[in-house]
Write a structure and sequence with these properties.
5 strands; alpha+beta; 5-stranded mixed sheet; single chain
Length: 581
Amino acid sequence: MRLRAGVAIWWDAVSGGRFFTVWSAVVALPLSTVVLAPYASVDTPFELVTAQASALLVAAALMAALLPVALAERRMSSPAACGVLVLTALMAAAVVRPFLNDVLAVGVFGLGPDPAWAERIVTNVVAWVSVLSLVAVTEQLYASSQAARGRLVVALQAVTDEQRRAGHYEQESADFLATEIAALREALSALVAAPLDFERVRVFADGVRSVSHRARDRAGMILADLHPVRSAPPASSAARSFFERLRPPAAGLVGVIFAAGSAPFALRSGGPALAVLVTVGVVALCFGADLVSRRLSRGSSAQRRGVRLVAVWVVAGLVATAAAVVIVGGRTPVPLITIVSLPGVAIIAALCADAVHRGRVESRQLGRALRTVVRSAAEQASGARRDLLHASEVLHGRVQGSCVMLAAQVDDESATPDDIRAFELAIGAGLSDALESRASAVSRAADLAETVAVWKPVLSVSSNVDPMAATAMADALVSTRVVAVVAEGLVNAVKHAAARSAAVDVRGAEGGSGLAVQVRTPGRLRGDSRGPGLGVAGLGPSARVFQSGDDVVLEAFVPTVASTPVAVGQGRGALHDSDSM
């Protein structure tokens, strides 16, 4: 699974339209000049500088030749064609580079030729493809993570405004009910303090009806039309130092890359036996450096982790250099290149590892915060609406009913003290019931409509719920599970695309055993998001995220039969604790 995800990330970088960038040139120049210069016939410091100068000129010429490819890849609409173009151009540059090096080094600067073309070509291909791919992956992941973070931050600010509106709405609704119920109690006390007649009871009943209607009207208010509160813009995260951006790369990655680049030189110098020895030794050395850097990173700050990582790989480079000098002797400066090249590859891989990790962690944290705020806003608004509707129903039915019966009685005959006392107790109990909050843990659960309403400032969400699904969602637990799926899909919509639309479809499954929930949004899955993340996994084994044409689709099955097993986290917990994909 990790290998497949890594290949997907690499291919997205190759075919994403920004493989060749300024950072490619920044890395390719020292790679070509220091590591891949024609050192075969170098014996003196002057020849060393000459070889590096010829390599620098060739690298500059190749970059100029690749510039049209860099421009073309940014204009290509087909990722596959773009990837083929980039790889073809990269391979061609790596293959032709040794020949161009000899043209300058031998023909212009007078250095000796190096006829080991196969070994040189393989080394160049491995170095250019692996290192420039790491650079492209790192740059793309940083860019996509920054874009996703920006969208999530904007969305979080928007729904935070909605949460504040919901908070104001909830508080003002509670104040409204408390004030109106208190006024009705005073009116009731005034009513029973004097002789009753039909007209006085009717006036009191009209007051009850007015409060009931206003409570119902208030329950239907749209949050977006209330309290235009703007939250303060989020503080930008502090800039990180170079060392803070280094994280131990995937175990074995540096060793495999460096062994592949070293094997051709070892094969040329000492045959298959030396090639095997060098390959095994490099992989073992790098694996040891991986383990040491990870152990030293535990419990340390990001700054210290980066410093220790660089120190470990510099030591590994020194060890590799010493071993190379012992094997091939000190007659050539080639072994000294390892002092720079091995730590250099490790640092680039460490930057890439940090880009992958940081993108996932930031998206996960912001996604969790976004879901929490949306849930809170929706629950506050839902609870306030339920309290208002409950008060309206009690006033309209129970309280007004008592008023109608007393009015009919006093219209025909005088009410006895017992009748008045019974009326006062009944109305008082009804007013207390109307003021009682309905916001229990289950009844406060945000419904789908309220959740979609909270998302409106961020996304234009269309929802299609068939009659069977609407009936099933009358159950609070089923509704909560559906909302969990929709919330996860909408968070992913913000994460994976700048589009501002989403479509929610909830349909009853055949046999009535559950609901099929689908959230479809325009966009493309990020390369490091292939496969279910923690948030999707928390929705149950049926949940999956996939690319469908130009849309990202989240699908999940929500059971409605009580006996159906439910994955841990698929209920209310998925809203509280799940992490974004």
